[in-house]
What does this fold into?
Amino acid sequence: MELDDRKLKILQAIIKNYLETGEPVGSRTISKYTDLNLSSATIRNEMADLEELGYIIQPHTSAGRIPTDKGYRLYVDTLMQEKVDEVNNMRDDLLEKADRMENLLQQVAKMLAANTNYATMVTTPKYRSRKIKFLQLTDVDEYQVLAVIVLEGNIVKNRMFRSDVALVKEDVLKLNLALNTFLQGLDIEEINIGLVQKLKTQVGAYQELVSEILDAIATAIQEEGDIRVYTSGATNILKYPELSDMNKARDILSTLENKEELTQFVENGDIKPDEKRGIQVYIGDENKVDSMKDCSVVTATYEIEEGIYGKVGIIGPKRMDYERVVGTLQNMMGQLDDIFKNKKP
Amino acid sequence: MELDDRKLKILQAIIKNYLETGEPVGSRTISKYTDLNLSSATIRNEMADLEELGYIIQPHTSAGRIPTDKGYRLYVDTLMQEKVDEVNNMRDDLLEKADRMENLLQQVAKMLAANTNYATMVTTPKYRSRKIKFLQLTDVDEYQVLAVIVLEGNIVKNRMFRSDVALVKEDVLKLNLALNTFLQGLDIEEINIGLVQKLKTQVGAYQELVSEILDAIATAIQEEGDIRVYTSGATNILKYPELSDMNKARDILSTLENKEELTQFVENGDIKPDEKRGIQVYIGDENKVDSMKDCSVVTATYEIEEGIYGKVGIIGPKRMDYERVVGTLQNMMGQLDDIFKNKKP
DNA sequence: TGTTAGCACTCCATAATGATGAGTGCTAAC
DNA sequence: GTTAGCACTCATCATTATGGAGTGCTAACA
It folds into this structure.
């Protein structure tokens, strides 16, 4: 049996209707609301075929049909027409509140959640290597010193340290110089014990302080390598009855709260930010995260600079409005491109 | 009618039982599980009295009784015996992960949620005034400059700026000096237009940059004045059937997600961190936040240094295990005291 | 006077029953 | 190939019965 044009049209109609209502859709509905001019009986025959082909399924005998994962897949791959997103200038709103990367991303999550009525996630970009650009020690008072660590890509970290011995201004300057000569341009792996020893011989009374600082640098770099995830609109999940079942809801919400599992969507090797801005759709069982098996997740990839990517994700029921979501995401990716190209924040 | 000793004992028994089961409790249960040696009939008479006094209520005729808000209130005020918290050394776990304030507080929220099975919130401390201790400009490359702003209390903020004109190293140093002489020790209100103009006359070509920096300082101080709220264990709410009703759950969870309303618990004037470490209990309608009218919230106050407070809160059903929660909170406040006194992080 | 046993009564929860209606598959006719 | 018609299935909803938990009241008892 083949998927002829008519079958496709019927399938499309079924899915579209189901996306709207969430109820199984029957033959009479299709017969009335399409321009095919076919009786419900004919539609029934076609629907039987579509069921045999695995695109739709009956939740029980004598109920209408609902799409299977395979049906949804066909739909997002070939059948749907993307909607152009009407919310087109989010950019200004975005910039207004977002003075820093962290806030920007949180804001992106929030706006997407508000616009789509689904749950959203945004990951921080994943860097490949983190080298030390420079660091700077400043004495804050007699016993405290502030270390500002600047990593390649202008990531800035700061730590406050307390010294057991009183600090001498000139010594801090010297220490600063020594640390910079030794560490500038180094990656974390390159800071080995030999180097540390060598450095320590040069710093006299401040050995303790130096180890603390080195530790801090290590964790700072480490920390920046970690991907953080911001979420928003988690409670939107409860708007969809098929997910509001106590157990499902709890699972999904706690995944969103704990975030660790969400990074799985980033780790997916197949980033291709070229075509369609790297938008990918994971339907039901296609999700690797267990709690999401009843959801669909749409992810998009944003690029901060050459080779440095982060992901944006929308999490909703399988019957989510794919067209709108994809449109909104494409739009948002455009806005982000603008922002990062102009490097305003 | 008076609340005699026997009535108190019965009330206590009713509440205790209800805290455990969440089911209305009947006269026979009390008759069996207390050492009062009274028949169910006698208990019934007493219960009728207690109902008349407003401490308990019947959800419907011929059901057992459940405590009213007034009943709970009496219970937490006089009847309960605090449990000593068995989880007594959280301190080490806490320090391990918490290299910075932000992480520490997040971690506190997490641990409390794990220990209590309720939702938790932790607010950042509220400072009264924020003065500039010093700031430091560093040229990162030809067009970019990093400003590190250190506020009183060693709050460190950093911003990156881009200049339109190429930067000269000596100019940056001069700028640094000028900014510091003008701004050191100033509060945000003290940075007025007159001062800004005066400053601008001194900086030659960098007027643009200076306004940007001043803006950044203003928002940085502002930002630090804002109270942020960390939450954890929001999904624990769904473990309690009386809160799992779709609408209630959505309301509570979105309050937890959006956080704004939660700061109301901080704004409460009556902070008295002395007795009992400032633990306060808000039962049902005593909560100002609408979505929490079916919950109880227990808050505690931690003190970072003289006069600088933050709050920790536990949010659960009205039948929460008050004894345990209060115990756990007291313990946690102790741990935090330790940490802040020793100023490790 | 306080306590208790006994009994009628109330009301929730649960299961069983039946009616309704949406939707199907199949067959026969167009 | 398409359609009308019909018997059939099954979820949903309202209705009804049944059991049990718990009460309030009364009368008897210590």
